[in-house]
Amino acid sequence: MTPRRRLASTCIGTVTAGLLATGAALAEPERDRAQGSDIAMGAYLDYGPSGVARIPYLSRWLGGREIRVGHTYLPGDRWAGIEGDVTFLESWAQWRQAADNRMFVLNVPMQERNEGGLSDRQVARLIRAGASGQYDRHFKRLAERLVALGVPDTVIVLGWEMNGTTYSHRCGPDPENWKVYWRRVVNSMRSVPGQEFKFDFAPNRGTDDIGWTSCYPGDDVVDVIGMDSYDQGPGRNFDDQITQPYGLQHHVDFAKAHGKEISYPEWGLFRRGDNAEYVRRMLKWIEEHKPLYHTITDYCPHGVWQCKQNPESAKVFRKALRLEEPDPVVPTPVVPTPVIPTPVVPTPVIPTPVVPTPVMPAPEVPSPTAPTAKTPKPSPEVPLPGNPLPVTPSPVVPKPEVPEPEPGVPEPTPSPTPSPVPSPVIPSPVVPKPEPAPSTAAPTQTAPPRPQPEPAEPPVNSRQWCIPLNFGEWLSKLVGTQSVCVEVDWGERSGFWPF
Q: Whole-structure pTM over 0.70, yes or no?
């Protein structure tokens, strides 16, 4: 990528700086899950102060992810610019000094008229001049400038994409002298007291004009082996970009063989437009191989934030690198539950009707007393008209046969033989039925109790002896007047019948 194109792009960037400051261009796609790691990442946003000013907004777009790499370029049109005699370095130096974990990456051209379109012959002559030490003073002044600004640990991407054909500092016209020239530049800058520079050897991916390993100057003057990799040929897809000669895999393997860290100072979209798959695969590759840093070139057609023509790639980039913002803790308002008193509905007390239990008086049943049998005067039976009372037959006691007295023998006086006294017949007491409970219906008129016929008096001188029984007034109404009758047989042959 040429500094001339970069400088031209800053004109547009300066016009839109105000809009970016207000966040007008920060249209955010949908919220995504945060991924990625703590690999130092950044983006080339602009070469001067506007590039520094845009870093916080890119960080906000990525959900607060810290942008740890600030990346810019020195102009290669004149040696004064290569010496660092530009004002914008102060802004980057202040940004770098604001945090210890930040990294300032500075691309440094190796020739003036670096994008002048010089022929290979002209370039070869310039390479030989540099290898002879004619340009050492320019790089020493740059080192002194950076140390004075307080950025002595700047990562110097020296003579980037040297295996291509774009720049005057290319390697192809004279690889051997080019490597000598690189070594003189590094040694000149390291000679400045206080310096802690790291030198990044960063070719283009692929063969390009020359295999980039032919330009490698040696492990003692290289600290990091980088690679610029855009979505373009050679290679039809990302797998080809990995496996092609001098591709991504060759880069990783070469750096490992030389004991060096890797980097990706420039990467982004290009020939294939809004290729979200490329962005996804490149971020996955970076995550897998853990470079010292990586910076996407974020202007059109390469970018994903400032370049709005690549929305699908922007979504992938943002999803992979955006931090997961914690949801704000919104206290749940405590809404007191209104206490609604439950109305107390009195339960109506329905009085239970008291039905009086009829008290049934226990009937007084008199114990029948057996009457003492008295010897009544027998009277001859006189039959009475009407229905005779039932007569209980008494046992007939046979009279003893008295033999006829013999003549001359006095007749003995017979002893009276008492007749057996019959046991009185005790009738079973009649238990009255309880009166029914009073009814609420209208009382019905009942017929008065029918009077019981009075027992007929036994006939005079009868063999029945009846004794009336008194059960009390109440019970007598129910059962009537009762008598206990005893029949005594005073037969004519008993010897005791007086009549």
A: no
